[in-house]
Specification:
Keywords: ATP-binding, Kinase, Nucleotide-binding, Transferase. Belongs to the ribose 1,5-bisphosphokinase family. It catalyses: alpha-D-ribose 1,5-bisphosphate + ATP = 5-phospho-alpha-D-ribose 1-diphosphate + ADP. Pathway: Metabolic intermediate biosynthesis; 5-phospho-alpha-D-ribose 1-diphosphate biosynthesis; 5-phospho-alpha-D-ribose 1-diphosphate from D-ribose 5-phosphate (route II): step 3/3. It is built from 7 helices and 9 strands. The chain is α/β, with parallel strands linked by helices. It has a 5-stranded parallel beta sheet, with helices on both faces. It has a 4-stranded mixed beta sheet with strand order 4-3-6-5. The protein is globular and about 40 Å long.
Length: about 180
């Protein structure tokens, strides 16, 4: 049996990493650890920070199943991160709308989870990270996120409450009837 593959996408501050962490902690899916060209900082998602040169070497060696550039950084999803799907385990990854069409070509059964939250809540979450100043936060919120490629199955998850509520909504969307999903 093959596991399902889910791409988690959404605007900055929607809470994608929080929901992914909760889903992985519940043992319901394997989270693919991204490779990003920046050093990790306290409070970041779990990822492997590499230099541009290291990223280029990984890319040339064919280590990534998907890769893209956004916000001046390079992102890659290691092939090894998807191996649990071949063993029947569901796999989730934090992706980008820009790579979804390619992801759908790579994973014929790709499902997309679009995490949404109101702009004012997203702004507060971004401010809490401490990576951007007020003007940068406003610019980030104003960025066009783009449409999703047509024809992909999309599950929308509203993440406008506590982390526990958001995680429960994500679990309910992925695993209907799971008692951990709450009411």
């Amino acid at each position: 049996m093959k596991g399902r593959v889910f791409a988690i996408v959404g605007p900055s501050g929607a809470g994608k990493d929080t929901l992914l962490g909760g889903l992985a902690a519940a043992g319901l899916a394997h989270r693919v650890r991204r490779v990003i060209t920046r050093p990790p900082r306290h409070g970041d998602e779990p990822f492997d920070g590499v230099s541009e040169g290291e990223f280029a070497r990984h890319l040339a060696a064919g280590a990534f199943v998907l890769h893209w550039r956004a916000h001046g950084l390079a992102y890659g999803l290691p092939r090894a991160g998807f191996q649990p799907a071949g063993r029947g385990r569901d796999v989730v990854f934090n992706g980008s709308r820009a790579v979804l069409a390619e992801a759908a070509r790579v994973f014929a059964d790709l499902r997309v989870i679009l995490v949404e939250a109101p702009p004012e809540l997203r702004a507060a979450r971004i401010a809490t990270r401490g990576r951007e100043a007020g003007g940068d936060i406003a610019a980030r919120l104003a960025r066009e996120t783009g449409d999703l490629p047509p024809g992909l199955p999309v599950i929308r998850v509203l993440n406008d409450g506590t982390p526990e509520q958001g995680i429960a909504r994500l679990i309910a969307a992925l695993c209907p009837g799971d008692r951990r999903a709450g009411p």
